[in-house]
Design a protein that fits this description.
Length: about 300
């Protein structure tokens, strides 16, 4: 029997499944719940336990981790007679690793406190590859004591783990992260089309650019997507569209101008409107190709 905290994991998508599996590998007993039967089968095959409901998953859990797409889904699984707050035990720690609005995280923390449940918002960056390799960047918001208690568990999921401030701070930093990533991908996509239309060896060009000041984690992670036009989703355009809405709204609230970010948000929205929402966010390249009259689409 493990002496480690019992974990309930809600949401086993592209990111959630490998993250839950990394906890199992680290020795944590994990009980999972999600709506997709195949994801539950995957969890069971990797040593986890399967629950038939949120109530069943969280009833005996010391730590509850949620990883769902957006604020409405967090609210749906947290509140109501069938939700987490109605069934988690007092003293449990709820770690929401979804990317949602800062205000949703603040509201959840307040509602949970009334039930004696502690909360951290702890969104992540690093995409599917980072989740698989357990090298995610985790930005947390909440009380220091709760963060300290959660840190050993978070170290099984990520490499850079930082408390950024009180409740909602993790989501604010994640919004900034998504702004930087989107602008970076867009810049890389524009460079790729420029290089190809100029007749340059793209692979060689990206190698040398990656070794200089233009190098970035985005370029290193997405270089193969650009060169092969492989846009299978690691992080979908649909989700980045949602995140750009979050950062745009939050920036407006605090009075911060996002001149470049606002343009890129519209380019992400345009790509989604053209039917590419299910593709990886590196598919911003397709938008640049269309604008340039240069496309490799089949």
């Amino acid at each position: 029997m493990s002496n480690l905290p019992k974990v309930a994991w809600i949401g086993l998508g592209i990111m959630g499944s490998p993250m839950a599996e990394n906890l199992i590998k680290a020795g944590y007993p994990v009980t999972g719940y999600t709506l997709e039967a195949d994801k539950l089968e995957r969890l069971a095959k990797n040593g986890g336990s399967v629950a038939g409901s949120i109530a069943e998953a969280v009833a005996d859990a010391d730590v509850i981790i949620t990883m769902v797409p957006a604020s409405p889904q967090v609210e749906a699984i947290a509140y109501g007679p069938d939700g987490i707050l109605a069934h988690a035990r007092r003293g449990a720690l709820l770690i929401d690793m979804s990317s949602i609005t800062p205000q949703t995280s603040i509201d959840l923390a307040h509602a949970a406190a009334d039930k004696g449940i502690r909360v951290l918002d702890a969104p992540v960056s690093g995409g599917e590859a980072g989740a698989i390799e357990a090298v995610l960047s985790i930005m947390a918001g909440g009380d220091q004591t709760d963060f300290d208690a959660a840190r050993p568990l978070l170290e099984a999921l990520g490499k850079t783990i930082v408390r950024c401030g009180p409740h909602g701070s993790g989501q604010t930093v994640k919004a900034a992260n998504q702004l930087i990533v989107a602008v970076n991908i867009q810049a890389c996509a524009e460079a790729v089309v420029f290089l190809e239309k100029s007749g340059v060896d793209l692979s060689a060009a990206l190698d040398v650019l990656g070794g200089g000041l233009a190098g970035s984690t985005v370029l290193a992670r997405k270089k193969d997507n650009f060169t092969t036009r492989d846009f299978r989703p690691g992080f979908r355009i649909d989700l980045h569209h949602k995140d750009m809405g979050i950062v745009t709204d939050a920036a407006r609230t605090v009075g911060a101008a996002l001149p470049v970010g606002s343009v890129v948000a519209q380019l992400v929205a345009s790509l989604r409107a053209q039917g590419d929402g299910g593709l990886d966010h590196s598919a911003l390249l397709r938008g640049v190709e269309r604008l340039s009259g240069h496309t490799t689409e089949g």
